[in-house]
Design brief:
Blueprint (H helix, E strand, L loop, with lengths): L2 E9 L3 E4 H18 L1 H5 L11 H8 L3 E4 L2 H4 L19 H17 L8 E5 L10 H9 L4 E5 L5 H14 L5 E9 L17 E10 L8 E10 L5 E2 L21 E2 L1 H22 L7 E6 L4 H12 L12 H4 L6 H8 L9 E8 L3 E9 L1
Parallel strand pairs: 4-5, 4-6, 11-12
Antiparallel strand pairs: 1-7, 1-8, 2-3, 6-7, 8-13, 9-10, 12-13
């Protein structure tokens, strides 16, 4: 019971925010804050809020724009956060809705109907509720059969979801598994922090993993996969149903995305590059046999260095395509967006790898070959 990736799907919001638009809003908020706290700043009691720039953002990350669900509220200096209205319990939730949209795209590409699906996994960084599982809602909205569950391994949720689906197929639990990655990352971003206000965007992807015996022509054989986790506080978000009200003495900032970017860069790059090389060696594939690497879309410099360490030389965008310039960091969906958009030129026998890495630390590598 070998598993393949039959297809992928993508949904993106209609609205986009450019770096220039984001900077105008941030600097307006920063100037207002500094004016309101001018006396304390002059007395040395607090530090003035710095200004941002489009040039700083692109140099730091490679990001030029991001897709967002709630543009107006993010760009309002009086709000600086998405405003997504709550829905009644009888209405489909926003995460389920965008999952279904991406799922339908994936199913259509594979010539499948929802009732062909035996299991649904929603694997993402940011689940909007504790229960019932978003995946069960997606299963119901699609009209899929079998069973469904949620899982979260931060930015590696999609690759961990692929390997989980492969295990379900190998164990005989399902023949067709839909993995959805709905990521509304702007919901946990601190738009008032100069060092991170530009990082995330919103999107949803879907991956259809199936038993090879029923797969359509041109599916992607999964040659091997490797998963790893290593605990670190360098990327963290403390929001949750047990601590969504900040305790005495602790501000709200730690309930949003926080990271020590320099430590993340130093520690994650060698971890991921080594993991990729180990898995390639384990399945007997040379790095030079790879046509493309679809890496996690977090930071252009990280991707460039990881690709260089794997290949032993500088590589171009064709080998390691970038989508974060348009989509920004979309957590677990990033590498799947890259795969979805930049895999159409593969021919039978061509080999590539999907790789994710992020909070945890967590990292996942999936090596695939076009059939």
């Amino acid at each position: 019971m070998s598993a393949v990736i039959s297809s992928t799907g993508l949904w993106a919001p209609k609205d986009s925010i450019s770096n220039e638009e984001l900077v105008v809003a941030f600097n307006a908020w920063s100037d207002k804050w500094n004016d309101e706290h001018a006396d304390a700043i002059a007395a040395g009691e607090v530090e003035a809020k710095p200004l941002s720039s489009a040039e700083f953002i692109e140099k730091a990350s490679g990001i030029k724009a991001r897709k967002v669900i709630s543009k107006a509220a993010i760009l309002d200096p009086g709000i600086m956060a998405p405003r997504i209205p709550e829905r009644a319990n009888d209405d489909i939730s926003v995460l389920a809705e965008i999952s279904v949209a991406a799922a339908k795209d994936a199913l259509a590409k594979a010539g499948r109907k929802p009732e062909d699906v035996d299991a649904v996994i929603v694997a993402c960084s940011n689940l909007q509720r504790a229960y019932p599982a978003i995946a069960i809602e997606v299963q119901d909205a699609l009209g899929a059969g079998g069973f469904a569950f949620d899982m979260n391994v931060a930015c590696s949720s999609a690759t961990f979801g692929i390997e989980t689906a492969r295990g379900l197929i190998a164990g005989g639990q399902a023949k067709s598994v839909l993995v959805c990655n709905p990521e509304i990352c702007t919901g946990h971003l601190n738009f008032k922090d100069r060092d991170s206000h530009f990082i995330f965007g919103d999107v949803a992807t879907a991956i259809l993993i199936e038993d090879a015996s029923i797969a359509p022509d041109g599916a992607w054989e999964i040659l091997g996969a490797k998963l790893a986790t290593q605990f670190s506080n360098n990327i963290r978000n403390n929001f949750g149903f047990l601590n969504n009200a900040a305790p005495e003495g602790i501000g709200a900032d730690d309930k949003l995305f926080i990271q020590n970017g320099r430590k993340v860069f130093r520690e994650v790059v060698p971890l991921v590059a080594g993991m990729i090389n180990d898995e390639l060696a384990n399945i007997g594939i040379a790095a030079t046999d790879l046509k493309r690497m679809w890496l996690h879309q977090a930071n252009l410099s990280m991707n460039t260095l990881i690709a260089k360490k794997v290949m032993g030389k500088d590589v171009d965008m064709d080998m390691s395509p970038v989508v974060l310039d348009e989509y920004a960091n979309t957590s677990s969906a990033g590498s799947i967006i890259a795969f979805d958009k930049y895999s159409g030129d593969f021919e039978a026998g061509d080999t590539g790898l999907i790789c994710s890495f992020g909070a945890g630390y967590s990292a996942g590598v999936v090596v695939v070959r076009k059939t």
